[in-house]
Amino acid sequence: MRKLCKSLGSVLLAIALMMCVGGSGALGAPSSKVVVDQWEIPFLNCLTGPIASIGEYMAWSAHRAADEINQKGGVKGKPIKIVDLDTGVSPEKAIEQMAKIVNKSLVALGPVPEACIMAAMPLAVKNGLLCMIASTTYEYQSQFFPYAVAWDSGSDKTLPPVLAGWAQRNPGMKRVVQFVERWACWPGMADAHAAGLASVGVKTVEIEVPTDAVTFGPLVVRALAQKPDGFVLTCTSEKAAKIIIELEKYGWTDKSKIIVFSSADDMPLYTTGREKLNGVYIYSYLDSQMETERWVSFKEAYKRAHGGMEPVSLSTVYYDCVYMIKEALENTPVTGDPKKLKEERTMIREYIRNIQNFEGVQLTWSMKDGVPTDKGTFLFIIKDGAKQYVDYFKPWK
Amino acid sequence: MEIFVAQLLNGLSLGSIYVLLVLGFNLMLVVAKIIQFAYPHLVVLSMYVCWGMLKYTNNMFLVVLASIVSCVIVNVAIEPIFRALSKKHGLDINVSFVVSISIALLITDVMSHALNYGFPIAFPTDWVGKSVLNFGLITFSVGQAYALIGGIAAVALFFYLLYRTRQGRVFRALSENSVLASIIGIPVVKTRILSYAIAGLLGGVTAVLFARLLGSASPSLGDFVAMKVVAVSILAGLGNLKGGLVCGLLLGIAESLAMGYLPGSWSNAIAFMMILIIMLIKPEGLFGIQI
Amino acid sequence: MSPVIYYFLSFTAINILMCWAFYLPYRVGQLHHLVVSCMMASAYFSGYAARQWSWPFALTLLVGTAIGMLICLLPSFAIGDAPCFTVVIVGLTVLFIMKTAIENTRALGGTLGFFGIPQVNNLLLLAYLCLAVAGLLIYRIDNSRLGRAASMVFVDRDAASALGVDVKRLGMLFQIIAGGLAGLAGSLYAFLIGSLFPEFFNLGVIGTLMCMLFAGGHSTMWGVVISVPVFEGLHLILPTAVASWLQVIYAVTLIVVILVLPGGLITKKMLVKVGERFRARPQTVSIKGGIKE
User: Residue C31: its chain B contacts at CB < 8 A?
Assistant: First the structure.
């Protein structure tokens, strides 16, 4: 009897232990011992050269996310360290920086910008390293699937609804001039704008903005000669601001019939355009007037670090990337063991590619095979140098 | 016709700025025998000084003074580098070109690293100003008027200095033959330094006029303009001051007309094709080399 | 081999080829920026031929080299003996024209770029093989009548002409060979990176190559063999905080080198001295006319 009781007791104990182990597995992260002292996440970023200012705020946001995570105890008890690697705007530097990390990193941030993406990503793909190239569009990211994830669902799906929405707010528009700077994916975005406008019966005429243009009067004269009802600006932020100033100089007063595209939602637009932007529409992926605690905290810290400047679209993408990586590290049995590099890379990649209900600093979204399923675009109107929310558009299916 | 006149006015105001830049550039070329590729970069740096000064005072005189003084100081500070080069290499303008590219790189990188977080700077919107002339599409702003009138005045003064004063004769003598100039007692080094100072002065004035015309500046502006200045100088004939004057103005007008009329995405290529054809037919430039 | 060393060595080989493409026309005093256009055209051609028509690597390399030579051949009729800065402007204008053409060609990816160029095995080895062949060719040219004529043209164009040197034909020949070298470099570049973007070929490339040539020494082909690995490797070894000022470091280094060592790190004079030191005993050989060597 005593033997039976002992056996029964042992069985019950074993069952209880198994339940504990199983339960813990069901409740949180799969238990596995982390072998690294810190989670090093390399960031291939443009810290020098003509667009170093953009690289600076992207680096700032990644470091901000890492600091927040580390203050709360890190990931699996280990801190996150963002390792900045400068790509300049040089393809050679980018590929050599990628070569430094391609055999040892679990996941990477960047490269930035497009020239560096084109140069360095084939090496990442060859070695199976997931790179979060969040600063560009689907058109680039999708070329490197499954070793990249998209931050939007494609210009041809995301942008037309916004442009159509803007046109519907300005009834009577039949013909608009679109200023297009031919750089990277921008011509594709311009085509998507035109498709959106065509869907509501508005015709688009394109005028190219030369990259090295110094003054914009001649382009504006040419545009006004077309007798348009409105304007779409698909060019850099500084050029967009200057075109708007010139339009006013040539007597165009209805600012609501001007829309600026998302890539121009950058500081130079506001510092150059100032009060001349009042009434202009702009679409973007970030609502700076949002009042959630997390966003206000981010925004205030950003402004303190940048002489009072407001954050823009690209200033948050790598903040979200770091949190996405954190979630992947927490919810997969990743240890950082170099011997398991290949399989752990796969775990992180597959987790991120199909992440569910990820809570970004502003939006919450899910991904299917690396493409966001429900991420839309905000439409704003600019008033007194700030964007006022107008509407939110889901992408076309 | 209305569109053509509007584009012509745009071209004239832009062309007057190019003329000023080409004059400063050519002055150093003929007197000091250097290709100062970084000259437009210095002008952009002076625009930054101008912008910095505007943060402290609205006094126009002080702003212009700051711009001129900064451009003169930096340009004269560069002179010893080129003087040392000239001692080591003789008068090799190819080497001076390479060194000035390095200086341009240095200035651009400092601007994109250390000034205004690398973001473009913007001048008060009233600097560009409202239209002083408004007739349909034919519009002329205060900034354009400043650029055109200021440009004409500066060019007139420059040519007066060069062709009607004793110092001008000294400059011309040095450009013709520096050895002979030295034999007849012209202080070569002092005159070269003076040419840098005058080019700096022109640069400072250009910076203010440019700021009034454009309303903003960015670290990459120097590169955009430098290419055009070098192209104009070569197209006119290296060191040809009068040729530079004509070609600078023509470039401004041609650029406006190209942006206004040439077909979309090929406009740049067509403009470059025209330059290429001229260079292939007349490799010495339209007005001939004068160094 | 670690990927860092692999790419460092590969880019070093390609950049030495490109520097030699700059070096050769500079022997007659011409800054031949057209070679960057040759590199661009050849890279896009090789990438397209390999991806779309499945051309073998060797064939694309040959045709790429020929394309480079052809691009230099046509303008060389006009600028074979043109002043240095005319050659500069012709080079830059062709670069802009070519860039616009590629940006407007959908088959080449337009502004978006060209993806998916197939990988090649043993590319590094092949690159160094090409480099050795190119080096041998330039060495032979440098130490031939052509090389001596070029030195004469560099010092005094009029005197060279008076002594019977056909300056135009010499300039044309050097420009065409330089185009071939750049075409070869372009093909290798396309296969090394695996994708192409119009912005890869910009003024920055010209600036970097000129820095490498002038810092290494423009009077001999060996200068760039030293300067290219140094410039290529600098950003790999410098700490990030310092590396972010790399452009400034490049610029200051170049200015200092040119001021302190006018001919660059390696000069012809220096090579002669080194050669003499390595000889066991300086031999005195009398040649025609009683001049001793």
Answer: 94, 97
Tens digits of residue pLDDT in B55-72: 888 888 999 999 999 999
Are C259 and B95 inside 8 Å of each other by CB? no
Residue of C nearest to B238 (CA): C85
List the 198-257 stretch of B: residues with Cβ below 8 A of C.
Answer: 223, 227, 230-231, 234-235, 238
Residue of A95, A359, A381, A183 whose CA lies nearest to A265: A381
Range of the domain at C51: 3-290
- Separation CA A75–CA A25 (nearest Å): 17
**B2-125+135-281, what's its fold?**
ABC transporter involved in vitamin B12 uptake, BtuC (1.10.3470)
Q: How far apart are CA A40 and CA A108, in angstroms?
A: 9
Radius of gyration in angstroms for the set of CA atoms belonging to chain C, rounded to a whole number: 20
Residue-range domains of chain A with CATH: 39-152+294-365 (3.40.50.2300), 155-284+378-393 (3.40.50.2300)
Structure tokens belonging to residue A87: 């790509």
Mean of pLDDT values over A337-363: 94
**HSE-CB of C174 using CA atoms within 13 angstroms:** 34
How many separate domains does chain C show? 1
Which of these, B29, B92, B284, B179, lies nearest to C155 by C-alpha position?
A: B92
**Which residue from A323, A191, A361 is spatially nearest to C110, judged by alpha carbons?**
A191
Given a contact cutoff of 8 angstroms between Cβ atoms, the answer to whether A167 and A282 are in contact is no
User: Residue A12 above 70 pLDDT?
Assistant: no
Peptide bond into A122 cis (omega under 30): no
Answer yes or no: pTM beyond 0.90.
no
Q: How many CB pairs under 8 A join A and B?
A: 114
In the chain, the amino acid numbered A272 is T
The pLDDT of residue B58:
83
A25 has pLDDT over 50: no
> What's the gap in Å between the CA of C185 and the closest CA on chain B?
23
Cα–Cα distances in Å, from A73 out to A24, A80, A102, A326? Answer: 20, 10, 28, 12
- Min Cα distance C259 → chain A (Å) is 26
Angstrom distance (rounded) from CA A391 to CA B227: 44
ipTM metric: 0.86
For the segment A365-389, what is each residue's pLDDT rounded down to a tens digit? 999 999 998 888 999 999 988 899 9
Residue C223 corresponds to which tokens in the numbers above?
Answer: 């200068």
Of C29, C86, C244, the CB nearest to B283: C86
CA distance B221 to C64: 35
Location of structure tokens 């005429």: A205
B116 touches chain C (CB under 8 A): no
Tally of CA atoms within 13 A in the half-sphere of B23 that contains its CB: 29
CA distances from A219 to A13, A225, B221, B249 (A): 82, 10, 18, 19
| Residues of chain C contacting B231 with CB distance shorter than 8 Å | 89, 92-93
B-C Cβ pairs (cutoff 8 Å, strict): 116
More confident residue, A38 or A13: A38
**Alpha-carbon gap: A364 to the closest alpha carbon of chain B (Å):** 31
Kindly list the residues from chain B whose CB atom is less than 8 angstroms away from the CB atom of residue C210: 98, 101
Mapped onto helix, strand or coil, the DSSP state of residue A378 is strand
**β-pair type (A203-208, A175-180):** parallel
